[in-house]
Structures are given as structure tokens and as C-alpha cells.
Design goal:
By secondary structure, the chain is an alpha/beta fold. Helices cover 42% and strands 16% of the residues. An eight-stranded parallel beta barrel has the order 1-2-3-4-5-6-7-8, surrounded by five helices. Strand 7, helix 10 and strand 8 form a beta-alpha-beta unit. The longest helix is centred in the last third of the chain and has 18 residues. It binds 1,3-dihydroxyacetonephosphate.
Length: 252
């Protein structure tokens, strides 16, 4: 049975002190929630990763990094490597986020390398994909998503897919307040699951968690999560408030 997952991507938000305060609140409230086959993951910025990882060690809250370098070490000023992430006991990394694709040159080819480096270093990958508004308007969204997934992930072996989580994040829905409808999310998730089933075997596609991301809030989470192929959410803005994030966790 595939896991339900609610993951919070803090992006470039929260100072060290603010991170500590948010984690404290999350830890307190999460105790009241009964988690049934559900994972909670938070992805703070690099500067807060080690502290948050330590603070959540004996809780049900898991921690993820927001990016890694495709290379493992060397003269790459400002970069953070997969072994560095692992060395502070963080086991998951978000790759392919549209903000990384748009502002930091994360192409499909580079992402394929980052995925390989992550898996080689025993990191689980939350792989994001999604179309921009023009693609949706012109009806190209399935084609765009298919390309993104094929180019970055279809060289993987069946065994490697055990460590992949997918996250559909239509770019037009990120931070805009305009969420995809539950039907639009379901349609894309089912399409992607079928794509994986065709390339691999249905056992893999059935077990892969596919999250939806883009303006998920306590008010719309339940409806989106009710869809058959939506296995949880990747939450941005609403993950910055303990109350909102936990309300979304409860919705699942
Ligand atoms: P918002 O929830 O703020 O739209 O962000 C979604 C996202 O990009 C999560 O990675």
C-alpha cells in the first residue's frame, strides 16, 4: 500500500530562531494526531536543516533538504552535496521544483544527474514536475509532464523507484492562491501513474506516492486529497504556520 504524505516546503523562509519556534509548535501539536500510514515531512532551508533534524529525531516528523548539487564534492562554491545532507541524518531531498527549474537552471538533464547522485547516496527523492500556464492553456500539459518525467527518471531501474516520490505542481497554481481543481489533479496523477506503469510494471506505479502541490490550504486540502490518485500534498505557504500545516495533515 502506498504511503500518504504531507510535506512542507519552507522554501527560503524562516530564520534559525523562527525555525526552532515552528518545529516546537509542530512537535507539540503533532502528538494529538493519529497517523495511519501517513508520513509528515518538512523541508527547511539548509542553515536550519541540522537543527531541525536533531529536534525532530524521536518524533514522527521527517526532514528533507530542498536541493543538492549533482556532484558529490569539489570546488563548487556555495553548493551543498548529497553526502553532506546524509551526514546530518537527513534522508530525503526535493528535486525538480519549478522555482529551481526557472531561476537556477535545473534542466531535465541536470535533474537526471541530481536524481542519480541522490539515490547513490541513499537519499529518497521527492521529484517535482508540472506545466506552466501557457502549456495548460494550449492543451500541452500532458506532453510537458511526460517529457519532464521521462527525461529525469526513466533511466532508473525498477529497484530505484522505491526511493522516488512524485509531486505534481502545476506552476500556475504555486503561490497564486489558484489551486488546480481536484479533477485536474486526479486527471494528471492518473496519467502519470499510467505512464510509469507502461514503462515499468504496474506494481511500481501502484506503490508510488504522487503528491499534489500548489496553493493547498486547510480549506481545500480535504477535497484534493479525496481523489484516488492523490496521495498527499507538497505544501508551500501553508507549511509556514503550524496550525495550517497540521490542519492539512488532519485533512488526509
Ligand atoms: P504554495 O503552497 O505556496 O502554492 O507552494 C507550493 C509549492 O511550491 C510547494 O513546493
Amino acid at each position: 500500500m502506498r504511503s500518504k504524505i504531507v510535506a512542507g516546503n519552507w522554501k527560503m523562509n524562516k530564520t534559525y530562531q523562527e525555525s526552532k519556534a515552528l518545529v516546537k509548535e509542530l512537535k507539540k501539536s503533532v502528538k494529538e494526531i493519529k497517523l495511519d500510514n501517513t508520513r509528515i515531512i518538512i523541508a527547511p532551508p539548509f542553515t536550519n536543516l541540522q537543527k531541525v533534524s536533531k529536534k525532530t529525531k524521536d518524533t514522527c516528523i521527517e526532514v528533507a533538504a530542498q536541493n543538492i548539487c549533482a556532484l558529490e564534492s569539489g570546488a563548487f562554491t556555495g553548493e551543498i552535496s548529497a553526502p553532506m545532507i546524509k551526514s546530518i541524518h537527513v534522508d530525503t531531498v526535493i528535486l525538480g521544483h519549478s522555482e529551481r527549474r526557472e531561476y537556477f537552471g535545473d534542466t531535465d538533464e541536470l535533474l537526471a544527474k541530481k536524481v542519480d547522485t541522490a539515490l547513490k547516496n541513499d537519499l529518497e527523492v521527492i521529484f517535482c514536475f508540472g506545466e506552466v500556464l501557457e502549456d495548460r492553456k494550449s492543451g500541452n500539459h500532458f506532453k510537458v509532464v511526460e517529457e519532464q518525467i521521462k527525461k529525469a527518471l526513466f533511466h532508473l531501474t525498477s529497484e530505484e523507484w522505491v526511493n522516488i516520490i512524485l509531486a505534481y505542481e502545476p506552476v500556475w497554481a504555486i503561490g497564486t492562491g489558484e489551486t488546480a481543481s481536484p479533477e485536474q489533479a486526479q486527471e494528471m496523477h492518473a496519467f502519470v501513474r499510467e505512464l510509469v506503469a507502461e514503462r515499468y510494471i504496474s506494481g511500481i506505479s501502484e506503490n508510488i506516492s504522487i503528491l499534489y502541490g500548489g496553493s493547498v490550504k486547510p480549506t481545500n486540502a480535504k477535497e484534493i486529497f479525496s481523489k484516488e490518485d492523490v496521495d498527499g500534498g507538497l505544501i508551500g505557504g501553508a507549511a509556514l504556520s503550524a496550525n495550517d500545516f497540521l490542519a492539512i495533515v488532519k485533512a488526509i
